[in-house]
Amino acid sequence: MNAIIQDVYRNTSAGLRYAVMEKKTRPMKKGPQRGAEEAKISALRRMKENRFAIGSKLTRSKFDRWLSEKDSGLNRNVRYIHNKFILIDPLTSSPIVIAGSANFSEASSTKNDENMLIVRNNNRVADIYLGEFMRLYNHHAFREFLEGVDASKLGTKPNHLRTDEWWKGYFGDTARSRQRQFFAG
């Protein structure tokens, strides 16, 4: 993620911001520089108004019983996500959609010959892009979540309906509340 875009995620106010990324960093070897880039993205992910999903695929385990997904093998550099677009205020009466060939990386922003299209105030276009974005976000967020699940600590019995106060997470200053407010208006 370009440093300028990281700065927007770090220093501007918003109730909720999403990002879907192929990887936490640009292609680079393991080492201190890569670790520093990953740490910056991790810090952004910890901010309460930011929601990131990093490209991932389902692997098979005792817990999930999913069929393993396989990479297509069509591209060595891009395994999961090749879409490039930014949505600004997509649910308002004046949305902005930015789409094109640029990856929003440092090189694509300052060195490469890229093209971008900016569509303003077109709710139909914004709705279509938002639908596709949320499909991609949920697809990869779910897979990334499963990577962190320790199947050995899960029981095999089904969970029953909860009678505690789980619903309180949808109100107040919580991640679920911000999401509910963002989409409900």
- Main-sheet strand order equals 3-4-5
Helix and strand run? HEHEEEHEHH
Question: How would the global form be characterised?
Answer: globular
Mean of residue pLDDT?
A: 83
Strand content: 5-15%
| E-strand count | 5
Task: From the alpha carbons, calculate the radius of gyration and give it in angstroms.
Answer: 18 Å
Structural class: alpha+beta
> How many individual domains?
1
* Total of DSSP H or I helical runs spanning 4+ residues: 5
Spatial gap, N to C terminus = 28 Å
Query: What does the largest sheet look like?
Result: 3 strands, antiparallel
Q: Poorly predicted ranges (pLDDT <50, ≥5 residues)?
A: none
The oligomeric state is single chain
* Helix content bin: 25-40%
Give your account of this protein's structure.
This protein is an alpha+beta fold and 185 residues long. It has one domain. It contains 5 helices and 5 strands, in the order H-E-H-E-E-E-H-E-H-H. The chain has a 3-stranded antiparallel sheet, covered by helices on one side. It has a two-stranded parallel ribbon with strand order 1-2. It is globular. The model has no long low-confidence stretch (mean pLDDT 83).
